[in-house]
Amino acid sequence: SEYWRTLFYYNVYRFCIAIFLVTASLTPLQVGSLGGTNAYLFSLASIIYVPIVLACGLFIYKIWYRYITICRLVIFTDVIFFTFLIYTSGGLGSGLELMLVITVAAAGILMGGRSAMGTAALATLMLFGEHTYVIINQERKIGGFTAMGFMGLGLFATAFFIYFLSMRRRLSQEELIHQKINIHNLNHLNQYIINRLPYGILVIDKNYNVWLDNSRAKTLLRIKNS
User: Fold this and answer.
1) Which has more pLDDT, 190 or 110?
2) Is the pLDDT of residue 61 over 70?
3) I want to staple 83 with a disulfide (CB 3.0 to 4.6 A). Which of 95, 126, 156, 209 is the partner?
């Protein structure tokens, strides 16, 4: 339930971003460089993103698919969508690249450190592909690959950080599980030793609730009651 709740909150964040992008695309005022290259495609993509987010929210609420399947769909959709918005906004410098960093971090939180690394690799390839495409089509001047490299480095740095945190969290969870198992085994051992004692043991609280007893105590009580 904790993982599903986290995924639900992330989808709420996506819905807020979708509403902001739709508002920015429909307002007559220019919001930074958003949609600066192709305002029509920016508006179209922003409007399409809203029902996609709502559909993901329905999948999460109804649990129609496996958790990992929905997570992969959500992360993959965000990488494609934000890369496309970066293209319609003139490339890096529009501020939308921050959304990719958040997506990489979300992939690590939702699915683990390895997924964060995979998402960082996918986002970096998508950015380089977008930049190469616009240069080939002479929509942008040749260059800018250094900035792309630093952006990819930032994505992988985020992924490494999330991977490190997820490893520490996993180790903490495993240690907690081992402690629970040890406590469970000690309780069984304690009960076994008490049952082997030749005299009866009965522990009750002030409300006469039995907290601890052994087989000898049960036998004595049955003899006394008879």
Assistant:
1) 110
2) yes
3) 126
